[in-house]
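Retro notes (design track)

What went well: tokenization of the new backbones is finally stable.
What didn't: we kept losing track of which sequence belonged to which structure.
Fix going forward: every design gets posted as structure first, then sequence, in one message. First example under the new rule, 320 residues:
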């Protein structure tokens, strides 16, 4: 609730704080067992920082992260270890997220060793072999090195590593964006199957809206550290209400030649989270901007029971 991650900006030898990068600026999300929440937005909007803040890999500077009734923010490292096994992450780049000098058996079994769940290596390797099978790899691969695998296989290894501790929540941080399109589909299928088998909750971070309907149940659209639209996937994608969501969706190619979608071109780049624009942060790029947008950040408008949109035009009933 109200998660904030602000990074201080230091200057000079005395490291005086001269400002803050408001990477995540007060967002509220819920995750449920067996469900996927997709977090979408442009690069630099704060999606990855949300995932890391949730897992306490970067320290949040405000708000609350509750897991099964327990507040995680502010817990000591020792107390946080008890929750580490339940909360795991799969990173974007399977090439960079594994130690090239370790064999697969040790990479995947590292968490089991660190948390002393399986202190004996032979036990760990048995468990790793099971995990390799679970993610569709040959269990014999435990003695091979990461460079001996293709990109898709390496991402399977990363998923096996995340599963090793029997987690309940996995943050999937753009797990397919470094892969070829054909391999992307295989990884998405694997994630979907694992969720069905294990009842996992996913926070699926992506800049690619086209993969959202395939995997997610709900979607939250982020812009400059805040969620601007949130709701069930089919409702948001069939009838986007926030002008930013509309623009993102308009960029997704439609395969059906009988359907045409007008591409909404946004001017300029996303502003810096160090000095976000006044009022609605999206107003310098918004095709539907009004005078009020320049001075006042919109409060959340509820549409039905499940949707939330932060936009003055939606609040005033002015958008289609
Ligand atoms: Fe556009 Fe105004 Fe809505 Fe912001 S509040 S998205 S500037 S219409």
């Amino acid at each position: 609730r109200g998660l904030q991650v602000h990074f201080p900006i230091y200057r000079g030898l005395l490291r005086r704080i001269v400002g803050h990068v408001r990477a995540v600026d007060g967002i509220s999300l819920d995750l449920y067992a067996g469900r996927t929440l997709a977090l979408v937005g442009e690069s630099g909007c704060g999606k990855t920082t949300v995932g890391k803040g949730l897992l306490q890999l970067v320290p949040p500077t405000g708000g609350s992260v509750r897991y099964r009734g327990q507040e995680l923010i502010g817990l000591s490292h020792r107390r946080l270890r008890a929750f580490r096994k339940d909360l795991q992450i799969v990173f974007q780049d399977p090439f960079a997220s594994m130690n090239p000098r370790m064999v697969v058996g040790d990479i995947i079994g590292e968490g089991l060793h660190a948390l002393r769940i399986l202190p004996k290596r032979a036990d760990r390797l048995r468990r790793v072999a099971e995990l390799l099978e679970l993610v569709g790899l040959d269990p014999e691969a435990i003695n091979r090195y990461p460079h001996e695998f293709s990109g898709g296989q390496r991402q399977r290894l990363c998923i096996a590593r995340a599963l090793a501790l029997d987690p309940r929540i996995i943050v999937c941080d753009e797990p397919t964006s470094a892969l070829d399109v054909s391999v992307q589909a295989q990884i998405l299928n694997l994630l979907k199957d694992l969720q069905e088998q294990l009842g996992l909750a996913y926070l699926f971070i992506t800049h690619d809206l086209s993969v959202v309907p395939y995997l997610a149940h709900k979607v939250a659209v982020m812009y400059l550290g805040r969620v601007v639209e949130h709701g069930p996937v089919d409702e948001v994608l069939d009838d986007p209400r926030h002008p930013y969501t509309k623009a993102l969706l308009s960029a997704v190619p439609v395969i059906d030649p009988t359907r045409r979608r007008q591409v909404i071109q946004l001017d300029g780049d996303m502003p810096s989270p160090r000095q976000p624009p006044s009022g609605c942060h999206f107003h310098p790029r918004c095709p539907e901007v009004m005078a009020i947008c320049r001075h006042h950040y919109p409060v959340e408008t509820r549409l039905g029971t499940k949707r939330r949109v932060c936009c003055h035009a939606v609040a005033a009933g002015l958008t289609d």
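Added context from the reviewer: The first helix runs from residue 47 to 54.
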